[in-house]
UniProtKB/TrEMBL annotation, chains A, B:
Domain called Non-reducing end beta-L-arabinofuranosidase-like GH127 catalytic: residue spans: 67-447
Protein name: Glycoside hydrolase family 127 protein
Coiled-coil ranges per UniProt: none
InterPro entries assigned to the protein according to its UniProt record, in alphabetical order: 6-hairpin_glycosidase_sf, Beta-AFase-like, Beta-AFase-like_GH127_C, Beta-AFase-like_GH127_cat, Beta-AFase-like_GH127_middle, TAT_signal
The organism of origin for this protein: Edaphobacter modestus
C-alpha cells in the first residue's frame, strides 16, 4: 500500500496537465517513463480484430466506424448506448466495482467488493464504450470513461501489476498455480487489453493501453513464461490469448504473439488435474483437443485465441483442431438459438446431443464467444458456414440476453421455461456480471461484423439497412448502401458505389436457411446463388450499381437430429435468421387456463406471417394451426398414449425467441411438440 | 490419542473373556460400566422397523426371519450374501475403511482414508449382515462382523464420541455448525445405530448397540440440544432422526424420540443459509416443507424420520406435510423406475416434471430412501398407493443398482444411455460408496417388507414364492405359503394356515397396474378387487385355505404427463411391476449399424411376451413392432419433419430395465419414441 499511496502523492504533486496524467507514464527509478512497446500511431478507423497484417487471414474486417446502421440493429444499438451502457455503469458503481480502485488510492473506505473477476466487468464496459466512441461522438460518455480510466491506471503498481483483488492479504497468492487456475488474474488483464485497444482505436488516447503494455512488458514477460527462471503460466479462464494477439496486431511487437502461443501450448512443468484441463479448456497443447467440453465460455474464448494464433502463424495443427472442434459444435453441441453450454453444472458443454431445453444453460457470454470464434474462422476461410453460425447466435442466443428496454440481462438463455419454477431469467444485476457488458460490447461493435475485404473485393456478411464508407484493399474508395427490412423481410437492395469504375468481386452471402434466392445486378438475374455460400459477383462496378437479393423467408419447421432425445417429436420454427418460440401469454388456450405443454403443432398446417409494429418493439408474429390436448388429471404416468381424438383445434402464436420474457412471466417453448395426424 | 492408547492397553491387559470384551462396557472414572439405557431383552424375531409399540402405526411389519423367500428374490438375495456382501467388505478393507479404525488403536500406520462419511459404509454393511444373520446362520460372516465390531467399538472415546475422521487435527471441528452441516458426524452415527440395532436383533449381542447408546447418552444428549447450555443440532444429512426413533423403539427410552423431534424441528439459534436449508432438507421445522427439493437422499431420509416421528406421536402437522410431499413425489418427481433425483448438480430433485432420462441422477440410495419412506407411510395408513411406489422402486430403480453377479453397483440410474459418452455406470467401487452397502442392506432386509399385521388380520404387500411363519396380533400362529412365478407371471396361490380355525382379514394387495384381477378363495370367486387397493377378505380361515390371485400381466405402454417435456412423443413399457427398456445390443437394427435413436415403436403394435431362462439370469423379454427411421446425415437440425414414408419395419426387443448394462456397453432407452401412424 505504501507504494500506491506514494504514487498517488507523486501524481497529485505533479503539475502535469490532465492529458499527460492520462498518458500514465512509466515509473523507473522513481521516474515515470513511456513503455518500450508503443502502439501503432495510426489508431483511426480500425476494425474489431485487425487482420490487416495477418498472413493467414483471407478476409479483413471493415472498421466499426465505417458502417452506419439505420435498420433493425439501429434501435437495439440506440438502446445499448442510451440505456444499457449508462445503467450498467451505475449498477457496477453501486456494487463497488469502482470503489475497488478508489480504495487503493485512499479515496474510499469501502471493503473490496465482488468476485475476483470484478475488474474485468469494468474493462468490458470500457471496451463497449470504445466501440461506441468509434462510431459516434458521445462527449459525456467519453468524459465518464476517461475519468474511470484515470482511476484504474492510478492503481497500477510500479511492477506493472494491476488488479484490485490480489492485494493486501491476498497479495501472496498472486500468480500462484492455484490462483492462475481459478483466480482470473490474466482473464482480467485480457479484458483490460481488449478494452484498452478498443478505447485507443476510438480516441487515440494510449493511457489505458500503455498501462496494459506495462503489465505485460514489466510484470508478466520478465517473470512468467517458458524460461528456466520463469514461473509457468496457465490461463485458467482463456481470454488473455486473444487479447495478447490483438495487442500484437496493435503494436507489431511479436513477443505478444509468442507469449499467446506459449500459453495456448500449455506448460508441462505444472501438473494440472485432468478435470481442470477439461473445465478450464487450457493447460495442454491446444492441438490436442478433440472435442468441445468443460466450461463453455472458457472453451469458446480458447477457440478464439487459437484461431487468432492460426491467423498469424498458419500452424496447420491448429487449423485441423479448430475445424474438428467446429464440426463438433455444429453436429453435436449447438442450440438452434446459436447458444452453447448444456449444463448449469460447471456451466459446461454436455455430451454429444445433450441439449436440454428448460435446463439449457446457454450463457449469453458463451453465445457471444461462439460468434467471436466464428467471425475469426470466417476471416481465415471466407466460408459462409461460419457466418451462418454467427448470425444464428447474434439474432437469437445473444439477442435474447438483453431486454427490450436494455436494462435487464439474461445469464442463462433456456429454450423452455415454466414460471412455476420461480426462476427469474432477466435481471438488472448479477454478482458475476460478465454477461451484461459482454452483450453491450457486442452490440456496440456490431457494424464491424457487417463486411470484410479480401484481395479481390468485398464480402457482405450481414444484412441490415446501413451505409458502408470504406475502401477496397487496393485503396479504391467504396460505398455500399443497404436498403432492407431484414430480418422481417428477405429483400435487400445494395447500392454499390466505388469511387471510380473498378473491377472487383462482391461476395454476397446466401444464408443456409434460404432455399430459394433471386439475385439481380441492375435488374439482370445472376445465377449460381447457393444456400450457405457466398455468391461471387465479379464485374466492373460503377457508382450506383444495384444488387438485389431476394431471400426465401418462408417459415420453416425444423427438426433436431434423432439423437437429441429431448427434441424427439418436437419442431422449432425459424423464419429468416430468427428462431421463434411459443410464449404462454399469447396462446388462446392459455387464456382458457390450459397448460402450454398440452399444445401441439399440426405438422401439415400452414403458418401465417404478420408484422406487429406495436408489439415487443415491432416483430413478426407467426400463427400456426395446432391442437389443445385433453388435460391430464394430474397423473405423472398413465396407461395408453393419447389418441387423435382427444383434442380441439386452436391457433398457436409464435414470437421471436429473443423477445421472450419481456412481458409478465409466462411459460415458453422453442421446441413445440407436434402431431403428425 | 493417549486416551485411546491407554484404553487399548487397558483392554489388552484385562483377563476378560472375548465375550465380555465384545460387550464393550462403559468407562467411568477409569472403569468400564454398562450404559444406563438398555435395549429390550427380547431381541429375537424383530422386524426392520419395530412398530409394535407405535401408537399411530396401523400396520406392524413382520420380522425378516419370519419369511423365507424361495422365488424371484431368492436368487438376488443369494448373490447378495455370497457375492456382494463379502466382496464389498473386501473392497472397503482394501480402501482403508477398516484401517481408519485400526490406526486409532495403533494397529495400522496407514493415513486416514476416504471421505468424512466413510465410517457409515462399514455400518451400513454391518446392518446388511445383521439382516442376513436374522434370516440364516452364517457363522463365517458372523465371525468377520464380530471382529469388525470389536475394532469399531475399541476406538470409542471415553466421552462416547466415535468417528475416525474428526480426530487429531480435525478434532476441533467436531460438531461445529459448519461440521454439522457438511461433516456427516450424526449421519455416521445414524447408520451406526441402524447397523447396531439390526445386529442386535440378529444376535442378541449388544456390543455395538451399547456403544451407540453411549454416544447418544454420554456425548450427544448432555451437550447438544435445545437447552440454554447446549449447542444446537442440525443433522446436515438427515439419517440420525430415523435411527434415534428406532433406538427409542429398541430401548423404550423416550428421550431418543424427543431428540429426534427436536432435530426434525430445527433450532432457530443457528442461522442456516436458505440454499443449505433446501440442499440439506433440514434446519427448519419439518412441517414447513411444501415440496421435495434439494439433495434427494437427504430429503428421502428426512421424510423417513418425519414419518417415524408421526408414527410415534400422531402429530397432525407432520402428517399433513408428509401427505403433501408424497403428492409432490408421485405427481411431479417420480421416475417411472421409482427412482428420484433429476439433477447431478447437488444430487437433487429438479423442478416439477423435470425428469431427464440420460442425465437422470436417480441415485440408488435415493430410490432406497423412497422405498423406506413409502414403507413407513404404508404402516401409517394401510393404503396400497404407498406399496405401489415401494414395489416400483424395488423392482426397477433399486434393483438396477446391483449387477447380476452382485459385484458391480450403480450410483446413478439413468433412464437412457449412450456409450459414446464414456460414462461407466456399473462399478465395483466408488470412493463415496454409500449405494453398494445400501442395496445390500435392502436386499438382506427384503423379507421384512412382505407382510404386515394389523389389529384385524394380515396384509400381503409383496408377491414372491415364499413361506411366512408368524402370528396374528392376537397371538394366533399363522403360516402363509405363496406359490407364484411373479414377477414374470401374474398368478399367485397363497395357502393360508392359521394354527387353529380363526376369523380374521387377509388384505390382499391389488397393484395399481393390474387392470383386471381375479381373486378366489378355495376356488370361489371373491368380488371387490380394485387396482391400487387392498382387497379385504374376512372370514374364518382354516389351515390350508387357498387364495388365488390372477393379476393382469398385459404389457402396458405408459405415457408421461405432457408437462414432462423430455417424454413427449415417447412411451415406456411396463409389465407387472417390471419396467422395460430397449438396449442397443438386442436390436436387429443395431446389428446393422443403425442408431438406437432412430428406432420408433408403433403405437398400435401388439407386444409379444416370452420368458428367456438363459438370458440375463432368466427374464421376460418383450418384442414390439417398430420402425427404423432413415438415418440423418449428421446434421443437428434440418428443415422439415420426418414423414411416414422414411422408415422400414423392424421388431424392437425390450428387456427389464434392472438388467441393463450387464453385457457389453450399449445404448439404452426406457422412454421410446413412438409413431402414431
Amino acid at each position: 500500500m505504501s507504494d500506491l499511496v506514494s504514487r498517488r502523492n507523486f501524481l497529485a504533486s505533479t503539475t502535469l496537465a490532465a492529458a499527460a496524467v492520462l498518458a500514465a507514464p512509466r515509473r523507473a527509478h522513481g521516474m515515470l517513463v513511456a513503455p518500450e512497446t508503443k502502439p501503432f500511431a495510426d489508431w483511426k478507423m480500425k476494425p474489431v480484430m485487425d487482420f490487416s497484417r495477418s498472413p493467414y487471414a483471407k478476409l479483413r474486417q471493415v472498421p466499426v466506424a465505417a458502417v452506419t446502421v439505420t435498420g433493425y440493429w439501429a434501435s437495439r444499438r440506440k438502446t445499448n448506448v442510451e440505456s444499457s451502457i449508462p445503467s450498467m455503469r451505475e449498477e457496477m458503481v453501486q456494487h463497488g466495482r469502482m470503489t475497488n480502485f478508489e480504495r487503493m488510492q485512499g479515496k474510499s473506505k469501502e471493503p473490496q467488493k465482488g468476485p475476483m473477476y470484478s475488474d474485468s466487468d469494468m474493462y468490458k464496459w470500457t471496451e463497449a464504450v470504445g466501440y461506441v466512441l468509434q462510431s459516434e461522438a458521445q462527449p459525456d460518455l467519453r468524459k465518464v470513461a476517461d475519468a474511470q480510466i484515470r482511476e484504474i491506471v492510478a492503481v497500477q503498481e510500479p511492477s506493472g501489476y494491476l488488479n484490485t483483488y490480489y492485494i493486501e492479504d491476498r497479495k501472496p497468492l498472486r500468480m500462484q498455480q492455484h490462483t492462475q487456475e481459478v483466480g482470473h488474474e490474466l482473464y482480467n488483464m485480457g479484458h483490460y487489453l481488449q478494452g484498452a485497444i478498443a478505447y485507443y482505436r476510438a480516441t487515440g488516447d494510449p493511457t489505458m493501453l500503455n498501462a496494459g503494455i506495462r503489465f505485460v512488458d514489466d510484470f508478466l514477460l520478465p517473470n512468467y513464461g517458458p524460461g528456466a527462471t520463469q514461473t509457468p503460466i496457465v490461463s485458467g479462464h482463456p481470454e488473455i490469448e486473444m487479447s495478447l494477439i490483438e495487442l500484437y496486431r496493435t503494436t507489431g511487437n511479436k513477443k505478444y504473439l509468442e507469449l499467446a502461443g506459449y500459453i495456448l501450448h500449455g506448460d508441462t512443468r505444472w501438473t494440472i488435474k485432468p478435470s481442470a484441463i477439461v473445465y478450464m479448456y487450457c493447460g495442454i497443447p491446444f492441438p490436442q483437443r478433440t472435442k468441445l467440453e468443460g466450461h463453455a465460455v472458457r472453451a469458446m474464448y480458447a477457440c478464439c485465441g487459437a484461431t487468432d494464433y492460426y491467423l498469424e502463424t498458419g500452424d496447420p495443427a491448429y487449423w485441423k483442431t479448430l475445424e474438428g472442434l467446429w464440426q463438433d459444435l455444429v453436429k453435436h453441441q449447438l442450440y438452434v438459438t446459436g447458444g452453447v453450454g448444456a449444463r448449469a453444472e460447471g456451466e459446461a458443454f454436455g455430451d454429444a446431443y445433450e441439449l436440454p431445453n428448460a435446463r439449457a444453460y446457454g450463457e449469453s457470454c458463451a453465445a457471444i464467444g461462439n460468434m467471436m470464434w466464428n467471425a475469426r474462422m470466417l476471416a481465415a476461410t471466407g466460408e459462409a458456414r461460419f457466418t451462418d453460425v454467427m448470425e444464428r447466435a447474434l439474432y437469437n442466443g445473444i439477442n435474447s440476453g438483453m431486454s427490450l428496454d436494455g436494462k435487464l440481462y439474461c445469464y442463462r438463455n433456456p429454450l423452455a421455461f415454466e414460471p412455476a419454477t420461480g426462476d427469474v431469467i432477466r435481471n438488472p444485476w448479477y454478482d458475476t456480471t460478465c454477461c451484461p457488458p459482454n452483450i453491450e460490447r457486442t452490440f456496440a461493435s456490431l457494424p464491424g461484423y457487417f463486411y470484410s475485404t479480401s484481395k479481390d473485393g468485398i464480402y457482405v456478411h450481414l444484412y441490415d439497412a446501413s451505409e458502408m464508407n470504406w475502401h477496397l484493399e487496393d485503396g479504391t474508395g467504396l460505398k455500399i448502401v443497404q436498403k432492407t427490412e431484414y430480418p422481417w423481410k428477405g429483400d435487400v437492395e445494395l447500392t454499390v458505389s466505388p469511387a471510380k469504375p473498378h473491377e472487383f468481386t462482391v461476395y454476397l452471402r446466401i444464408p443456409s436457411w434460404s432455399a430459394k434466392n433471386d439475385v439481380r445486378v441492375n435488374g439482370k438475374a445472376v445465377d449460381g446463388a447457393k444456400p450457405g455460400e457466398y455468391l461471387a459477383i465479379r464485374r466492373t462496378w460503377n457508382a450506383g450499381d444495384k444488387v438485389e437479393l431476394a431471400m426465401d423467408m418462408a417459415p420453416r419447421l425444423l427438426q433436431a437430429n434423432a439423437a437429441v432425445m429431448e427434441d424427439v417429436g418436437k419442431a422449432a420454427m425459424q423464419r429468416g435468421p430468427v428462431v421463434f418460440c411459443m410464449e404462454g401469454v399469447d396462446q388462446r388456450a392459455q387464456n382458457q387456463g390450459l397448460n402450454l405443454s398440452n399444445l401441439r403443432a399440426d405438422l401439415k398446417g400452414e403458418t401465417k406471417v404478420r408484422f406487429e409494429p406495436e408489439m415487443l418493439g415491432g416483430v413478426v408474429v407467426l400463427e400456426h394451426p395446432g391442437r389443445v390436448m385433453t388435460e391430464q388429471a394430474g397423473d405423472l404416468y398413465r396407461v395408453g398414449v393419447a389418441g387423435a381424438g382427444e383434442n380441439t383445434a386452436t391457433m398457436l402464436t409464435l414470437i421471436p425467441y429473443y423477445v421472450w420474457a419481456n412481458r409478465a412471466p409466462s411459460a415458453m417453448q422453442v421446441w413445440i411438440p407436434f402431431r403428425e395426424a
